[in-house]
Specification:
The chain is of the alpha/beta class and 222 residues long. The protein has one domain: P-loop containing nucleotide triphosphate hydrolases (Rossmann fold, 3-Layer(aba) Sandwich). 46% of the residues lie in helices and 16% in strands. The strands form two sheets. It has a five-stranded parallel β-sheet. It is globular, with a radius of gyration of 17 Å. The protein binds 2'-deoxycytidine-5'-monophosphate.
Length: 222
């Protein structure tokens, strides 16, 4: 079986997850959404009254069963794909993602998931830390105003009432936390191709990414 690993990093709201989902459906790559894993750990911690900023409170990780399959996330066998997208998780996940023990555990899962086959993994530190030898690295970005507009639209579609100003403030706060944490902060890998999606439609970004994959694989996807 042919192996080819694509690492996609970028800030919150840059479209990583949606783009990766569509590209994986069209190309047969397996999508691994690492943000979903951090979100699932956050859900478990909140449900079990774990003190989120206490490094020593994460012993439960040794027994936690996390599976990401076909764009669904399973926590100890339970499908938590919708729950991990709620605001309470979004607002707390950065605190959990700072914990060294959590990051070590996630790296184990992430590397295990990318061991063989056609893999498309998205996150914040995939090209820099998790899979530094990925065959293709892409950094997806967009202006914070555009990302806030997209997030606001998503919220409205899901019936969540927020203002543009609030969403923009949240995006700025999350950018700061993701790129200033001590371990594996968000940064663009030196050897990544940067795709600024501010003025592009989802379809245009999808096409560009598929083009990059095809070129990287010498047009030999199958
Ligand atoms: O992409 P997302 O919004 O689902 O990610 C949720 C959080 O998880 C994000 O605030 C940062 C963190 N994260 C991380 O630290 N490293 C990753 N590889 C993926 C996500």
């Amino acid at each position: 079986m042919r192996n080819f690993v694509v690492a996609i990093d970028g800030p919150a709201g840059s479209g990583k997850s949606s783009i990766s989902t569509i590209v994986s459906q069209r190309t047969g790559f397996t999508h691994v959404d690492t943000g979903a894993m951090f979100r699932a750990v956050t859900l478990y911690a909140l449900e079990n009254n774990i003190k989120l900023d206490d490094e020593n409170a994460y012993g439960f990780l040794d027994d936690l069963k996390l599976i990401f399959k076909n764009d669904h996330t399973y926590l100890n066998g339970r499908d938590v794909s919708n729950e991990i997208r709620t605001d309470i998780i979004t607002n707390n996940v950065s605190t959990v993602a700072k914990i060294a023990r959590v990051r070590e555990k996630m790296i184990e899962y992430e590397r295990e998931s990318a061991k063989e086959g056609l893999i498309l993994m998205d996150g914040r530190d995939i090209g820099t830390v998790v899979l530094p030898n990925a065959d293709l690295k892409v950094f997806l970005t967009a202006s914070k105003e555009e990302r806030a507009k997209r997030r606001l639209k998503e919220n409205l579609e899901r019936g969540i009432e927020t203002t543009y100003e609030q969403v923009l403030e949240d995006i700025i706060a999350r950018d700061y936390k993701d790129s200033h944490r001590a371990i594996a902060p968000l940064r663009c890998p030196e050897d990544a191709i940067v795709l600024d999606t501010t003025d592009l439609t989802i379809e245009q970004v999808v096409e560009k990414l598929i083009e990059l994959i095809d070129r990287g694989m010498g047009n030999g996807r199958i």
